[in-house]
Design brief:
This protein is an alpha+beta fold. The chain has a domain at 16-49. Helix content is 37%, strand content 22%. It is built from two helices and two strands; from the N terminus they run αβαβ.
Length: 49
């Protein structure tokens, strides 16, 4: 974990986020992932009430 933290802090590693979906659109997010067209991570956002 320390090594990963160093990479993130130094900017040598940047996660690639393809798309972001709210939790209530998780089915659409899954469908998108299953298409095989994603080039990065798909993020599901969870906002507490």
């Amino acid at each position: 974990m320390g090594y990963l933290r160093e990479l993130l802090d130094s900017g040598r590693f940047t996660p690639l986020i393809d798309r972001t979906y709210p939790l209530d659109e998780i089915v659409e997010a899954y469908r998108y992932v299953e298409t095989g067209r994603k080039i990065g991570n798909v993020v599901i956002t969870v906002v507490p009430d």
